[in-house]
Amino acid sequence: MAKPAKKLVIVTEKLLLKKIAKIIDEAGATGYTVVDAGGKGSRNVRSSGQPSISDTYSNIKIEVLTETREIALKISDEVAAQFFDNYSGIAYLCDAEVLSAHKFCGPDGC
Amino acid sequence: MDFLSDFMTLFLAKLQSPTLGFLIGGMVVAAVNSRLQIPDAIYKFIVFMLLIKVGLSGGIAIRNANLAEMLLPAVFAMVVGILIVFIGRYTLAKMPNVKTVDAIATAGLFGAVSGSTLAAALTLMETEGIQYEPWAAALYPFMDIPALVTAIVLASVYTSKQYDTADEALSKQESLGSPVKYRRKSKRVKIWPIVKESLQGSALSALLLGLALGILTRPESVYESFFNPLFRGLLSILMLVMGMEATARIGELRKVGQWYALYAAIAPLLHGLIAFGFGMIAHYTTGFSPGGCVILAVIASSSSDISGPPTLRAGIPSANPSAYIGSSTAVGTPVALAIGIPLFIGLAQTLMGS
């Protein structure tokens, strides 16, 4: 069995991770995944591979699985309102089906 | 004339030190688009090693030093840190095509301290056999934190004024359904989080940890066998990285304009000389050593390269990071290293005859 879910993806500056993690937790998501990211966006090309003087210059991709669209929107609205005026970032939503996860699906499995 | 010729000879001799050789080498290597890369993790580790070594040697020596002597230089360090930001606020920020917040952030970064520049200066001084107070490296936070705090507070004051005028303009032309772009963020700047953030930064943490270990434990054996012998080699690799980084950032500086380049070239020397002047006052009043004056001048002329940028990025989000990181890394740091350090050491030697 698969449980339908929404996957919210936020690509933004590494510097914001702690603050965004807090927003995600407060919105009631069960967890999130973070990976290093690079690429090209509206502000500049950034690569994750180059050595840089500080982490200020690196990007991350945060993925959050939520049960409802509302929770995902709540997170992305909050993040956009707080940070996207001044920091590079993009947020998008995908449909997902969770196949196996103890925490997300509860004790009876998905 | 004697004074000048003495000074020039000393100055030229300093220019041939391995530290500067590696720095210039790194710049050249990056300029010819070589694919040589020093891994990021190594760079971070080297910075940690250098600062913990500086902290340890300071801590070991502090045990039998008189800390009351530290008071005046520490106060001067704070004064200089705050002064630097105000100098930037009333010079760079007034230039045409320079955004005020960018200028304040740049001044804040130039007021903050670079651990690697400090380490390079200490190495060169040991080579020269110049004596300095064991606690002089501990002046670092006294300049670093006030500068960052001042910059962030100034920027917040400025942006909240901007919001106020924007709000007035908006309320005048309140049309139905127009999205209000500026949400009133009349946030009072909290000073403590900025201080905490600086203290938690990798560079300061390593330095303070070293100091604490040096004072409270007996790390002499590991210091003599490991930290001290490795210090110079690591420093030269660090200089290579900084040279490469400087060349890589030059392109960014082109985007933000000539005023930043000009400021970044002049500021390190001006700030250093101001601090050197304060050091001289301390020298004649409390017997602050010439070596100490050099250290005070070097931390004033250095601009932060590791801990400062993230603090500013978080504290002044509307400022453009290319502006301040570009000016600091591409111009400010090389100038402080290649011209500043030899200049201040030469000055100390000629003026006070150490």
Summary tags:
heterodimer, A: 110 residues, alpha+beta, four-stranded antiparallel beta sheet, two-stranded antiparallel ribbon, 3 helices, 35% strand, B: 354 residues, mainly alpha, 77% helix, 0% strand
Could you report the average pLDDT of chain A, rounded to the nearest whole number? 85
Low-confidence stretches of chain A: 47-54
For the largest beta sheet of chain A, what order do the strands appear in spatially? 2-5-1-6
Oligomer: heterodimer
Helical percentage of chain A = 25-40%
Structural class of chain B: mainly alpha
Count the strands of chain A?
A: 6
What integer is the average pLDDT of chain B? 87
Q: Biggest β-sheet of chain A: count, sense, barrel?
A: 4 strands, antiparallel
What global shape of chain A is seen? elongated
Helix count, DSSP H or I runs of 4 or more residues of chain A: 3
Radius of gyration of chain B: 21 Å
Beta-strand percentage of chain A?
25-35%
Major sheet of chain B, described briefly? none
Class by alpha and beta content of chain A:
alpha+beta
Largest interface: A-B, 14 and 20 residues
Following the backbone from N to C, one meets helices and strands of chain A in this order, namely EHEEEEHEH
